Amino acid sequence: MLPILLSSALAATVGAHASPSSRQIVPTSYEAGHFYAVGTTTEGKTLQLLVDSGGAGGSGFYVIDPATVSRLELQTSRCVLGAETLEVITTIPFAPGKGWPKSADTPCDATALVVPGIGKVTGKDGIIGAGYMPRHIWTFDYPARQLWIESADWKPDAGMHRAALGYQRNSAGGWGTGFARLRVQVAGQPLDLLLDTGATGKPSEAGEAASQAPTVHGVGVTSYITTSVLERWHRQHPGWPVVEAGDDLFGEHHATRIIGVPTMQVAGWIIGPVWFTERADANFHGSISQLTDRQVEGAAGANIFSHFVMTIDYPHGAVWFACASGCRAAEPIRSASGFDAASGRSAP
């Protein structure tokens, strides 16, 4: 999850899905749990965008940095959306098979939104986020380190487990803001989290020693939990490890705690241990929960998802998980033909 850069107009206009007619691989690089979509233009120039379901976007756009616009020599234009005027890019000339599909029916027929500073935040060129992603069905194959956009008629394989996704709806009944809520279980209790493929951690030396989290240049993935829930867990489960100053993504003077949860349940699969990184209550009870259908207490990130092949079926409001490693089924469960509430299905 990266800072929310949506305007109110953008946040309300995600629109309908437009998945391709056949399965399409998205060229990517993979760094310690993060997927970066790698596009190549007809002139051989490349851009890398963090694929971040909890990140910025809107109206079917992905988001790129002005420096990338200049480097790729892209043409920009102005797009009036409500009371706002946005800088957008109408098209990026990807070489065949070296990009990803443009969203249909976007404002001003644009492809991307230009946002200053977004490259500095991601360390790359921008974000494919909550504006663009709900237009499609996505498979994050963590074991194979591959990212796919599925066809519109995609069906889950036998043995996959389903969890419902909660989301705000627009006036047409479709996706509103594009930010999805996933319900998991920790210590037998339901926990609502933002589904956040881009949740980023930077473990301190002590945090890395405890969590054993893989990193690239010191950065990796994590899941987030609010201070109030962390404190409650610590009171109720004093044996769960807590590392003071376990993450210093915001600098050593603003380091936060991490807490290790021995097991948790996701869509009927049991995994663990899972480490959560502390975030202030206001981060989620305030800005993020204004963009989800119910209050969330943090974010589920790729340290959870990396146990699976995960398909986010935005058009049908569901996410499907196939166990790859470090997971076992809770009982009773059903396969792709159905699902039992006892197996951990999220409420809509």
Condensed summary:
The chain is mainly beta. It has helices at residues 8-11, 66-72, 118-122, 205-211, 227-236, 281-288, 302-305; strands at 24-26, 28-31, 34-40, 46-51, 62-64, 76-81, 84-89, 112-114, 126-128, 137-141, 146-149, 161-166, 181-186, 189-195, 200-201, 220-221, 223-226, 242-247, 256-261, 264-266, 269-271, 274-279, 298-300, 308-313, 318-323, 327-329. The chain folds into 2 domains: 8-149, Cathepsin D, subunit A, domain 1; 161-343, Acid Proteases (Cathepsin D, subunit A, domain 1, Beta Barrel), CATH 2.40.70.
Describe the protein's architecture and organization:
With 348 residues, the chain is mainly β. It folds into 2 domains: 8-149, Beta Barrel (Cathepsin D, subunit A, domain 1), CATH 2.40.70; 161-343, Acid Proteases (Cathepsin D, subunit A, domain 1, Beta Barrel), CATH 2.40.70.10. The protein has helices spanning 8-11, 66-72, 118-122, 205-211, 227-236, 281-288, 302-305; strands at 24-26, 28-31, 34-40, 46-51, 62-64, 76-81, 84-89, 112-114, 126-128, 137-141, 146-149, 161-166, 181-186, 189-195, 200-201, 220-221, 223-226, 242-247, 256-261, 264-266, 269-271, 274-279, 298-300, 308-313, 318-323, 327-329. The protein has a 16-stranded mixed beta sheet that branches. β3 (34-40) and β4 form a beta hairpin. The longest helix is centred in the middle third of the chain and has 10 residues, at 227-236. It is globular and about 55 Å long. The protein starts with 7 loop residues before the first helix and ends in a 19-residue tail after the last strand.
